[in-house]
Automatic annotation (TrEMBL):
Enzyme Commission (EC) number: 5.2.1.8
GO molecular function term, any single one: peptidyl-prolyl cis-trans isomerase activity
SUPFAM superfamilies: FKBP-like (SSF54534), Triger factor/SurA peptide-binding domain-like (SSF109998)
Signal peptide: 1-21
Span of domain PpiC: 179-279, 282-391
Stored Gene3D superfamilies: 3.10.50.40, Porin chaperone SurA, peptide-binding domain
Keyword annotations of the record: Isomerase, Rotamase, Signal
Protein known as: Peptidylprolyl isomerase
InterPro entries registered for this protein in UniProt: OMP_Chaperone_SurA (IPR050280), PPIase_dom_sf (IPR046357), PPIase_PpiC (IPR000297), Trigger_fact/SurA_dom_sf (IPR027304)
Taxonomy, superkingdom: Bacteria
Amino acid sequence: MNSRYSLKTLLVTLLFTTTLAFSSAWGQGNPIVVDKIIGKVDNYIVLKSDLERAYLEFMSRGEITGGNARCEILESLIINKLLVAKAEIDSVIVSDVEVESNLDNRMRYIIAQIGSEDMIEKYYNKTIAQFKEELREQVKEQLIVQTMQRTLTEGINVTPNEVKKFFNQIPKDSLPYFSTEVEIAQIIKKPSISKTQKDLVRNQLIDLRKRIMNGESFEALAKEYSQEPGADKSGGNIGFFKRGELAPEYEAASLKLRPGEISMPVETEFGFHLIQLIERRGNEFNTRHILLFPNSSSGDIEEATAFLDSIRTLIINDSISFEKAAKELSDDNLTASNGGFFTDDSGASRVSVEDIDPVIFFTIDTMQVGNITRPMAFRTEDGKEAVRILYFKEKLKPHQANLADDYQKIRMAALNQKKTQILNEWFDKAKDDVFIDIDPEYNHCNILGSQ
């Protein structure tokens, strides 16, 4: 963990960044908010605690606003609820599979950054399963909002002249100051999993199935052995899902079972599952499972390492560029499309050293610009073994924003402003299609433009 941050600071930063609405956290040295509804859009509500939590996150990032921050944030929350309400009217949906996948990724990221589930649970006095349950509806809402925003702003772009005009309108004394930034790229090779390793996991699940058939508790064994985040508290119970919402192999195996029956091991993209059907209600079914990931053998890791070592040699000998190799050979889809480069929220390939993974930070801290590391084993965000090489392309000293060095960031800011304008115009029209009510306490915010 980066020593620049205390545990409490890191916890607060991570949890607010992923919008975990854990009300118990407010009792630990923070003012307790007496909650009430301050906004309503059809059946969707905004609580005062939602506003205060978003405001605290806003201030923790060191954001500066020329207006009333709470009013701006409340307007954003109301617009989000309007997007969700309109999505319901327009039948725009996101699948539960997408929600669960996003939720699991967030939990894995937080657990990886903090160090363990126990550290999170002890600090907030909540189980991982409770965290996930409280976060699920927020994640679903965020995904719906993102889908609606993409739909409404699809095809919007800005010209170089619009970027320049946007930049020139920023007062010189208001230009942002960027900390040290770096350009880093990676090529990742995920070791192939041998049949031997897969068979080991299958046999382990078969042994667990025998123990359950002989009277041991499925939930107890799931708590002890399952590698799903939170399974040690939930006992592997994932609740009700409809057809089409889970991995096809998982669903097919589940629907062949009678209530109480247990499947043989089932392989999906997530690993191997031992599934027990709990209940069926028409088109919905409730299951619990034990999830195990097959590990790569030492031979698999060595093979991946040798592969990347050969690629590194080709790059050093100018037989192929790092960017081309990353696009064609990296197993990390997110960075491969960018030629292996990490990007910030604006899509720029230079990222602040404060935002990169501490492991990567300490690696490049010992490197010369232009160098490529030898293959290094590591674990991906979902906990799987992999090997990568890192390319340290450039380091830019702290500086005030300018068009020459920061064009991509400025372009993205200009684009976001243009998209915001379009969304505001949409809001002015769409607000007549739904019922909107805001607490009179916030009349001065003029959110509806009618006060």
